[in-house]
Amino acid sequence: MKFTLIRHASLWLEYAGSTLLVDPMLGAAGVNPPIVNAGDDRRNPLVGLPGGPAKWLSPDAVLVTHLHRDHWDDAAAEGLPKAVPVFCQPGDQAVFRDRGFGDVTEVDAAATFRGISIVRTGGRHGTGEVGLRMGRVSGFVLRAPGEPAVYLAGDTIWCDEVKDALGAHRPEIVVVNAGGAQFLTGGPITMDADDVIAVARHAPDAKVIAVHMDAINHCRVTRAVLRERLAAASLTDRVAIPFDGETF
Fold first, then answer.
1. Kind of pairing, strands 173-177 and 150-152?
2. H-helix or E-strand containing 140?
């Protein structure tokens, strides 16, 4: 397996002989307005795309955890080949078909692609009223012969659904969307530093990779902040924090 963080939650995985593009946000820096009610008026994305969009437009398949603009944007919808297989959560298929994609699979429980098992997991995109308004989100667990089991948690906070996924699937690699995204009211809607630490401690045999930072204006936890918290918790060697464009 080869893992590359493109930017934010957008990932490029070379896995079991196939290339998988996860949650593509491929627009140029500043093309979108700020997330409202975030106390930060910077336009999104905050940073450019490493290597330019053309580098990421020829995957073998696309996995989209949910349809928020920082996980599926117009640049991805317009630039990706319409024949590329797309895997999404239940209820999202029509959006992809409306944009011209013909091979779209809603992963209710599980699906397969070229020998890769794709199992959908649940999550909570925040708590209370804010969490309800953020809508349904999903994660995916990938397995294939000769490859590590990979859990892509998606946009979720630390919750029972994540704990259950770690226990049921026992992944060797866990990718968490950190950043502590938050509005002026309500709690975090993605994992903050405490949540990332909880994942690492709950899955002591897994390598954790924290992404989803320094690219969208409502993400409060930066890479620097998370590194400091991980160092204080003696978890620096357990949790990787890649830069945009970095490959493991």
1. parallel
2. strand 139-143
* Domains of the chain, first to last: 2-240 (3.60.15.10)
Report the distance separating Cα 25 and Cα 46, nearest Å. Answer: 12
Please, which residues have CB within 8 angstroms of residue 127's CB and are 6 or more apart in sequence?
A: 157, 186, 187
Amino acid at 11: L
Predicted TM-score (pTM) of this structure: 0.97
Task: Indicate the helix (H) or strand (E) that contains 224.
Answer: helix 223-232
Number of helices (H) and strands (E), helices first, in the chain? 6, 13
Tokens representing 62 are: 């696309």
Helix (H, G, I), strand (E, B), or coil: what is residue 39? coil
Is residue 110 within 8 A of residue 141, CB to CB? The reply is no
> What tens digit of pLDDT does each residue of 135-150 get?
899 999 999 999 999 9
* Cα 246 to chain centroid, rounded: 15
